[in-house]
Design brief:
alpha+beta; Lipocalin; elongated; eight-stranded antiparallel barrel
């Protein structure tokens, strides 16, 4: 007495469905800590916390050193990213230290590497229903737009004027910071 092809197919399908159901059960019971409290406003999440930089993305339009009438798009991911934002309360002070290396290739193929470092302390406040963070420090005022506000992850973006010695002028650099705590 042999096993029919139909019985093998049915048995095989039952095993696959059992494994699929088990996988869905495991996924449903997985740790969702990163998704908990997603609606916690920044006014509750930031005070007394430190956020460590993980990635930096940047974009700028820079006049060519060879021809100021030609604009060069510069974009990329920062390398050697380090730093943090630490938020205090009473008063609402902040310490920040941002460091990364930006690089680009000029049209003539020459690589340009620019180390970036901002370190300062000042005060912070929230604006626009907790969607923006204003930081006022000595010689700096930064306004960060909050792209992602999660319990253990923050993504902010801002525009920072950066002095470029080769062209003798400031250029607006759009920067996106990703952080974890």
């Amino acid at each position: 007495m042999g096993v029919s092809k139909k019985q093998l197919t049915t048995s095989y399908m039952k095993k696959i469905l059992s494994l699929l159901a088990f996988g869905l059960l495991i996924a449903a019971c997985s740790n969702d800590d990163d998704n908990k409290n997603d609606n916690v406003p920044l006014s509750e999440r930031l005070p007394g916390s430190t956020w460590n930089l993980t990635t930096v993305k940047y974009f700028a339009i820079v006049p060519s050193p060879d021809n100021p009438n030609v604009n060069l798009p510069i974009n990329g991911n920062g390398e050697e990213v380090t730093g943090s934002f630490t938020f205090f309360t009473d008063p609402d002070n902040i310490d920040y230290d941002i460091s990364f290396v930006a690089s680009a290739t000029l049209p003539d193929g020459q690589p340009v590497v620019v180390p970036i470092r901002w370190e300062n302390e000042g005060s912070w406040s929230l604006e626009d229903n907790d969607t923006k963070i204003r930081v006022i420090a000595e010689n700096d005022t930064l306004l960060f737009s909050v792209i992602e506000n999660r319990p253990n992850r923050q993504v902010w973006e801002t525009t920072v004027p950066q002095f470029i010695g080769e062209i003798g002028d400031f250029v607006d650099v759009n920067i996106e910071f990703s952080m974890v705590r």
